[in-house]
Amino acid sequence: FKCINPPQPTDTTNPNPEDILSKYTDIKGHWAQSTIVDFIEKGYVGGYSDGTFRPNNNITRAEFIKILNN
Predict the structure, then answer these.
(1) In the chain, % of residues over pLDDT 90
(2) Mean pLDDT throughout 17-28?
(3) Dist CA 26 CA 3 (whole Å)
(4) Cβ count within 10 A of residue 36
(5) pLDDT digits (tens, 9 = 90+) for 24-44
(6) CA 34, CA 27: separation in Å to the nearest integer?
(7) Are the CB atoms for 36 and 67 separated by under 8 Å?
(8) Minimal CA–CA distance to 26: which of 46, 53, 44, 47?
C-alpha cells in the first residue's frame, strides 16, 4: 500500500502557551497545565470544537489511540 497524496497538516505554526491558555480556559490552573500545554504545542492532543479541553474527563479508546499515533 502506497499513499500517493499523504495528508498535510492544516496548521504548521506552533502555538505559544499564552494562546493555548486563552483558547482553552479550562486548563488554566489545572494540576497538569504545563504538560497539557506541552502536548498541545507538540501536536499530540487538541481540544474540543467548543473551545474546551476538558482535562478532568476520561478519554475514550479512540482518543487514546490518536494520542499514541501522534
Answers:
(1) 47
(2) 91
(3) 38
(4) 21
(5) 989 999 999 999 999 999 989
(6) 9
(7) no
(8) 53
In 47-70, which positions are buried (b, 16+ CB within 10 angstroms) versus exposed (e)? Answer: beeeeebeeeeeeeeeeeeeeeee
Residue bearing cell 497538516: 9
> In whole numbers, what is the pLDDT of the chain averaged over residues?
83
- Evaluate if residue 10 carries a pLDDT over 90: no
Cell of 47: 481540544
Q: How many residues are recorded in the chain?
A: 70
Helices (H), the chain: 17-23, 33-42, 61-69
CB atoms near residue 30 (< 10 Å): 15
| DSSP for residue 14 | P
pLDDT at 28: 93
